[in-house]
Model the fold of this input.
Amino acid sequence: MQEAVAISFDTERQWLDSPECYHNSIAAELRPKRDKMAKFLEEVGMVPTVPEGGYFMVADFSNLSRFAAAIKFTSRLRCIYCTLFLAFYSV
Done:
């Protein structure tokens, strides 16, 4: 198993400057999804911190506090977090 991983790293290193490189292709594949999620968060009133590299996005939802009483936001925070997490990975 370790030898197979070592061989795959060696092979990937040879492709590092090509578009076929996993590290280049995954970034290109995830960038539109990241941008779509950031746009969605902005549209609903949140302020996203858009990562330059990485898979996770943080959003400031303090602007939504005015809706807290109407929708019991604090009790549903976990559901909203799960929904946003799933939405990001399903786009």
